[in-house]
Amino acid sequence: MHAPIISPSILAADFSKLGDEVRAVANGDWIHVDIMDGHFVPNLSFGPDITKTVDKVTDQVLDVHLMIENPEKWVENYRDAGADCIIFHVEAVADEQAAIDLAEKIRGMGVRAGFSIKPGTPIEPWLDKLKHFDLALVMSVEPGFGGQKFMPDMLDKVRALRKAIDEQGLDTLIEIDGGISASTIEESAAAGCDAFVAGSAVFGKDDKAAAVEELRTLATKALAH
Ligand code: DX5
Ligand code: ZN
């Protein structure tokens, strides 16, 4: 068992002081950067320039979640912007082979490759392809907005991933994104997640570092069982 990875999502940060917000969660492990294009999801966030700005103020791992169409056209831009991990949606690529090819391209650039899966997309077709990916991101809300309610049924996908990863002896990380808070992180850790994205549960608090610490404590406790 390794220590839980807490990845605060800057989507919920105050953009008027983004640098300070990122520095306020320096006790987190990663920084989650949500990229939305207004097409793949019905919302727009930011792009490579803001990502680069975030990279300048932190040494933390930049966990870049692409909620965009044609992700293959953008991976170089995000590599150049400082992404350490690039996660694209399986729903945004043509088929399974295209996902494997894109993961290979990302890894070839020296960046970790992840896939993400929307709530309505089954995980089964991906369970025998995990060796191509460094990370699997399970969405526990419909992608597009922060502050939504956690969907506990998504933990079935986490359990299926955990079983497949362990059986295949892989070190692919399982990350969960959407509605993670002090009341949902323990069940997520117990289901087998390694990494936890939290937007409003961190940036919605006055003491953001304390919120990160609380999430870490709860996840660590649940992982120990
Ligand atoms: C949703 C994004 C999430 C979002 C999570 O589409 O992918 O990363 O920031 O926000 P919370 O933690 O508030 O649900
Ligand atoms: Zn995200």
Automatic annotation (TrEMBL):
Catalytic function, reaction form: D-ribulose 5-phosphate = D-xylulose 5-phosphate
Described function: Catalyzes the reversible epimerization of D-ribulose 5-phosphate to D-xylulose 5-phosphate.
Entry's Gene Ontology cellular component terms: cytoplasm
Protein name: Ribulose-phosphate 3-epimerase
Binding site for a divalent metal cation: H32, D34, H65, D177
Pathway where it operates: Carbohydrate degradation
E.C. number(s) listed in UniProt: 5.1.3.1
Enzymatic class: isomerase
GO biological process: pentose catabolic process; pentose-phosphate shunt
Cofactor(s) needed for function: Fe(2+); Mn(2+); a divalent metal cation; Zn(2+)
Gene Ontology molecular-function annotations: D-ribulose-phosphate 3-epimerase activity; metal ion binding
Active site location: D34, D177
UniProt: substrate binding residues: S9, H65, G144, F145, G146, G147, D177, G178, G179, G199, S200
Manner of cofactor binding, per the entry note: Binds 1 divalent metal cation per subunit.
Protein keywords: Carbohydrate metabolism, Cobalt, Isomerase, Manganese, Metal-binding, Zinc
Family: Belongs to the ribulose-phosphate 3-epimerase family.
Classification via Pfam families: Ribul_P_3_epim (PF00834)
